[in-house]
Every structure is written in structure tokens, then in C-alpha cells.
């Protein structure tokens, strides 16, 4: 624990989109953060090396109050083509690290996905039955099940599509539309966008307050990539006719990786942590920088003081 009483976070996957944004935000609010990397360790006081494919039996977990598991094989096609490695990273390693941290009294946050559901029902709540169809979703569901056995010291945070400057596809669309070039967008692939800033704020608060259980940080409305492209064109003042409809099915994306329903109900998220999630277009606007979102509304200094063990 820090001198001022704030918790020390350990972020597994510090180079990933969410891990990097989370570590940056936590440091900006004065928290101490250690982050894992598979690359060269440049700042040994803030980083450590870790490859989740390795044998972790003898891995010595750095001391921390909150462990955030963000590293994962996140590409659905990669999970499909090499399920053995994906299982090692997305299930076995997560459990091993969580057990080590929980044994030392740390609170564990595991990032999961809306893909643990079967994709047939919109606005699905945190307590509804799972029915994953993609390999990625199945592995996340298995990890959830194993991690939840660790009890109240674990939070499972299911995310829908996190939108921010890290998304190469939307950055490319932005450049091409701004130059007056046409883009192709899938009409049969859906996302339920949530702005990165809200994901970061939500995960931080769940960690600060050690809120165990299952949380949904996701949008309750889905839109297609085609609608997303048209919205982007509109925001950029580009001709919406530049956004050309394409088919994910025709592009070879298997049916289990293009669910029609990907939205989630937030449950008691807003009441518990004060993060209000807007509709799909609002989340796109915040995530893509067309609208501001003031996270200061939801913070108080007391959020940063971890409860003392009794
Ligand atoms: N972003 C979303 O829309 C979204 C939605 C639902 C759920 N999630 C979940 O949220 C978490 C974070 O997602 P993200 O978008 O930040 O993913 P990301 O940008 O793809 O980052 C994944 C991170 O995992 C690391 N990683 C992969 N294999 C590893 C291994 N064998 N050993 C150590 N590190 C490894 C990667 O390291 P390298 O940089 O070295 O490759 C990378 O830093 C994931 O669990 C993901 O499933 C994300």
C-alpha cells in the first residue's frame, strides 16, 4: 500500500490497449502501478517481464493490492486457429496468477467479454445464463467459472466493444473518409460500443472499492459496423455514400464470430460506481473524441483509500 493509503495496482498486459490506458490513468491519479510486458523492460520500477505461455508455477507475483488481468489472446481468429495456446494464456495463466495474488490478499479483476453469451439476446444482464459460441468466448467463460471459485476477492468485468484511439480500423476509416476515399463496412457484424475512458474509470473504481462479483461495462445497444462508418462520415462532414456496405459472412468470418446481439444490460453498475453508459452513438462519440466525458463527476478522494483488513 502507498504511504497515502492508496492501493498498489499490478496490471498484467501493460502494453495492451486497455492495460496501457488503465496504467496511465492510475499513475495520473497518483496510484502506484506495476505492469507486465513481453517486450524489453525499460523502467524496472514500473515494469516486469511476463509471458503467459510460460510455466508460471515458480513465478513470483509482485506485491500488490489489486491485480488486473488484461493480457489475453484477444483475436478471435487466433483463438480459433490455436486453441491450445489460447487456453494456456486465457484460462490457465489467468487462474494461476489470480490464485497467487488472492493468496497474498490482493483483489483480482478479470476482464471478460459479451461473447460469453450466445449472441441471440440483446441487453443481456449480469446474472443471465452463459452460452458462448466462439472459441474466444468459450475460453473466457471457462476462465470466469474457475476464477469465480475464488469468491469475493474477484471481480469479473464483462466488456462490450471498447472504442478509443487504439482502434486501427476506425483510425484508418477516419483518414480515408477525410481524404474523400470510400471505405467498406460490414452490415452483418455488430458492436455495442463503450468508450475507453468509461472502461478505465469503471475498472479503477471496482478495484479501489474491491467490488467483487460480475459487472457489465458495456453498451445496451448494438449497431452494425456499417452504421458506425456512416456515423463517422457524418461526424467528419464526409459524404455518407463513401461508406460502402460489405458482408462479414462473405468475407469468411464464421457465424459464431458474428453474433447479432452483443449488447449488455449494465445491472446496478451506475448505482454502484456511478459510470453512466450512453447509447451506441454517444459511446462512439466519446470513444472517438467527438464528445467529452467528465470522469471527475464520479470520483471522490475516499474512493482511493482501500478498506483496511479487520
Ligand atoms: N478491447 C475490447 O473491445 C474488449 C472487449 C471485450 C473484452 N476485452 C478483454 O479485455 C482485455 C484487454 O483487451 P485489449 O483490447 O486491451 O487487448 P489487446 O490490446 O489485444 O492487448 C492484449 C495484451 O495481452 C498481451 N498478451 C497476449 N498474449 C500474451 C502472452 N502470451 N503473455 C503475455 N501477454 C500477452 C498482449 O501483449 P503484446 O502487446 O506483447 O502482444 C497485449 O499487451 C482482454 O482480456 C480482452 O479479452 C476487450
Automatic annotation (TrEMBL):
Domain RmlD-like substrate binding per the UniProt entry, residue ranges: 11-275
Entry coiled-coil feature ranges: none
The organism's place on the tree of life at top rank: Bacteria
Annotated transmembrane regions: none
PANTHER family: NAD(P)-BINDING ROSSMANN-FOLD SUPERFAMILY PROTEIN
The protein, known as: NAD-dependent epimerase/dehydratase family protein
Amino acid at each position: 500500500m502507498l504511504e497515502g493509503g492508496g492501493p498498489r495496482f499490478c496490471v498484467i498486459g501493460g502494453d495492451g490497449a486497455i492495460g496501457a490506458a488503465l496504467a496511465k490513468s492510475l499513475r495520473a491519479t497518483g496510484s502506484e502501478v506495476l505492469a507486465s510486458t513481453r517486450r524489453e523492460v525499460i523502467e524496472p520500477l514500473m515494469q516486469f517481464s511476463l509471458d503467459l505461455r510460460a510455466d508460471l508455477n515458480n513465478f513470483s507475483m509482485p506485491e500488490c493490492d489489486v491485480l488486473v488481468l488484461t493480457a489475453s489472446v484477444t483475436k478471435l481468429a487466433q483463438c480459433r486457429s490455436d486453441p491450445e495456446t489460447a487456453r494456456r494464456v486465457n484460462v490457465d495463466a489467468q487462474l494461476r496468477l489470480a490464485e497467487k495474488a488472492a493468496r497474498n490478499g490482493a483483489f483480482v479483476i478479470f476482464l471478460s467479454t459479451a461473447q460469453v453469451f450466445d449472441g441471440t439476446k440483446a441487453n443481456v444482464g449480469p446474472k443471465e445464463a452463459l452460452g458462448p459460441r466462439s472459441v474466444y468466448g468459450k475460453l473466457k467463460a471457462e476462465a470466469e467459472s474457475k476464477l469465480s471459485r475464488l469468491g469475493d476477492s474477484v471481480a469479473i468485468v464483462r466488456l462490450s466493444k471498447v472504442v478509443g484511439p487504439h482502434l486501427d480500423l476506425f483510425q484508418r476509416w477516419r483518414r480515408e473518409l477525410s481524404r474523400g476515399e470510400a471505405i467498406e463496412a460490414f452490415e452483418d457484424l455488430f458492436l455495442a460500443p463503450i468508450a475507453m475512458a468509461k472502461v478505465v474509470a469503471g475498472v479503477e473504481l471496482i478495484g479501489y472499492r474491491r467490488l467483487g462479483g460480475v459487472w457489465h461495462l458495456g453498451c445496451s445497444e448494438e449497431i452494425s459496423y456499417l452504421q458506425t462508418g456512416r456515423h463517422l462520415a457524418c461526424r467528419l462532414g464526409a459524404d455518407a455514400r463513401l461508406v460502402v456496405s460489405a458482408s462479414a459472412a462473405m468475407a469468411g468470418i464464421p457465424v459464431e464470430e458474428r453474433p447479432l446481439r452483443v449488447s449488455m444490460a449494465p445491472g446496478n453498475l451506475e448505482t454502484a460506481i456511478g459510470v453512466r453508459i450512453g447509447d451506441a452513438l454517444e459511446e462512439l462519440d466519446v470513444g472517438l473524441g467527438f464528445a467529452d466525458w467528465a470522469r471527475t463527476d464520479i470520483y471522490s478522494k475516499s474512493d482511493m483509500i482501500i478498506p483496511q483488513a479487520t
